From TrEMBL:
The lineage of its organism: Eukaryota, Viridiplantae, Streptophyta, Embryophyta, Tracheophyta. The chain crosses the membrane at residues 37-62, 74-94. This is Uncharacterized protein. Keywords: Membrane, Transmembrane, Transmembrane helix. PANTHER family: MAGNESIUM TRANSPORTER MRS2-2-RELATED, RNA SPLICING PROTEIN MRS2, MITOCHONDRIAL. It is a multi-pass membrane protein. It comes from Eleusine coracana subsp. coracana. The gene is gb11006. InterPro entries: CorA_TM1_TM2, MRS2-like.
Length: 102
């Protein structure tokens, strides 16, 4: 009568679940996780930058923008530098914690 449970001989012949195949798959999974970390942190930084550029790019008549045409340039420049710094900080933190790089 079969119970659906593998016998001890079959489990020993299969080599358990830590055979030769899981190691390359684990390495590939780790590389995909690292790629996902880079892509998601870049997405967050670019979305913050586009939020700032979108708010200041609208044609809404702000009173503080009168006679200050250079404000848009500086706000976009400063927010771009902040987002680049934030991306580099996220990557540096991931490297410090050992999540990226081997």
């Amino acid at each position: 009568m079969r119970t659906g449970q593998p016998t001890a001989g079959a489990e020993a012949a299969a080599g358990g679940s830590d055979g030769g195949m899981p190691r390359p798959l684990d390495n590939l999974r780790n590389q995909l996780i690292q790629l996902e970390l880079f892509l998601s942190s870049g997405t967050v930084c670019l979305s913050l930058y586009s939020l700032v550029a979108g708010v200041f790019g609208m044609n809404i008549p702000y009173t503080w923008n009168d006679n200050h045409g250079y404000v848009f340039k500086w706000v976009v420049l400063v927010s771009g530098l902040f987002c680049a710094f934030m991306f580099v900080s996220i990557v540096a933190y991931a490297r410090h914690k050992g999540l990226v790089g081997s």
